[in-house]
Design a protein that fits this description.
By secondary structure, the protein is α/β, with parallel strands linked by helices. The chain contains six helices and seven strands. It has a five-stranded parallel beta sheet with strand order 5-2-1-6-7, sandwiched between helices. Strands 3-4 form a two-stranded antiparallel ribbon. The protein starts with a strand and ends in a 5-residue tail after the last strand.
Length: 148
């Protein structure tokens, strides 16, 4: 049923809470996993702070950190016998996730939602809501509840 699963990750622990679900789905359907991080010039870091990547040095550092971060997760999937690769995209997050789903011929997008509702969604936006409203393929969303 699912041969390729796209997993958008932003470096946060909340986003990573999708991993056990994806592992189970990939094992059950013998699916490959494609991890993606999308880098915008203005983005959130792993603890929710807004960072402006205005300089080339900042941008290059973000790309390097993203590659290292995803490589670590790729290795964990591969150690469990799951085919996995990483992609880094640049631009608006929702658009790049949907574009990647199309170009990579993805069967399922699996991600977490931070569960923002009401005014928080208006002010902060919601990647999950943006994808839900625009994607033309199955979407698996797990509402994450992260407490520190």
């Amino acid at each position: 049923m699912y041969e390729k699963i796209l997993v958008p990750l932003d470096g946060s622990k909340r986003a990573e809470m999708i991993r056990p679900h994806v592992r189970e789905l990939a094992n059950r359907f013998q699916a490959a996993v494609v991890l993606i991080t999308v880098i915008e010039h203005i983005c959130k870091n792993g603890v929710g702070e807004t960072v402006n990547l205005s300089g080339r040095k900042d941008f290059d550092a973000k790309v390097k950190d993203s590659k290292s971060y995803l490589d670590g997760i790729v290795a964990k999937f591969q150690n469990k016998g799951i085919a996995c690769k990483r992609l880094i995209a640049f631009g608006p997050v929702v658009e790049k996730i949907i574009e990647t789903a199309n170009t990579e011929d993805i069967d399922l997008i699996a991600m977490t939602s931070h569960g923002y509702g009401g005014l928080a969604r208006i002010f902060y936006g919601s990647v999950a809501a943006g994808i839900l409203n625009r994607v033309d393929r199955p979407l698996f969303i797990v509402r994450s509840r992260w407490t520190e």
